[in-house]
Amino acid sequence: MTPSCNARHPPSPLVICPAQASHRSLVAPRQMSRRSCRPRWEDVQRMTRRGIQWLSAVADDPVMCRAHWADDPRRPYTLPTGRLFDVVVMSQRLGMETFDQLVRREMPLGPVMLDRRAKQIGFLLSSKSRGRFTRLLSLETATPPAYRYLDAGSFVVVPGPMPMADDRHQWLRAPIRRPEASPLRTASLAVMFAAAAALIERADRYGVQYPSPEAAGPEDSERVSDRAQ
């Protein structure tokens, strides 16, 4: 079982719940790159104007949120979850594999964000999707991997509309418009989340069994080669 967002839990840079912050402190501090002060824009996902309108609408003061981003589009902002969207948070390793599987298979996918320092990835789903996500995940595996589901009563730090490549908070898939409330996005995430966890577990188990190519005997090497073909 994942911990409830209403319960106390260790602080997390990507996840902010009522036990960690109040409505009076919704603006995350600006993150500057330690490696370089020069802007880098290549390979960076950016929000469109329609995406900004949709995402800022969830803020307690949407006008202030948009003004904040107009002043500095790189700055992240803390928004409440459960109003227009929920967030499924997982480790970066598992999240990247899940994201890659969804993209390669062209499955329904909403906005996705990354906290590089915390090494966490958040997938945005339609609000009130907790029950469906939990149920579908339980159909895929009896032992779900670790994740946290953020809905009403929690907060999450989202990247700014135009983050740079060295910024801490990034969009893997930025909002470009209001996402359609499709149950297929929830189903796709649940299925690929379980599949990615199983793939990583199997790879780790093989790495422990055969820490080097020399550790595998001739029969094992031939078996691996046959499977690769």
First-to-last CA distance: 39 Å
Principal-axes geometry comes out as globular
Relative helix content: 25-40%
**SS field, number of helical segments:** 6
With strands numbered from the N-terminus, the spatial order across the biggest sheet is: 6-3-5-4-8
Radius of gyration: 19 Å
Low-confidence stretches: 1-12, 19-42
- Number of strand elements: 8
Which H/E pattern describes the elements? EHHEEHEEHEEEHH
Binned strand content: 15-25%
Derived structural class: alpha+beta
| Average pLDDT number | 82
Main beta sheet: 5 strands, antiparallel
Secondary structure layout:
Blueprint: E1 15-16, H1 49-56, H2 62-71, E2 77-80, E3 85-91, H3 92-104, E4 112-115, E5 120-126, H4 130-140, E6 148-150, E7 155-158, E8 169-173, H5 183-209, H6 218-228
Antiparallel strand pairs: 1-7, 2-7, 3-5, 3-6, 4-5, 4-8
Helix pairs in contact: 3-5, 4-5
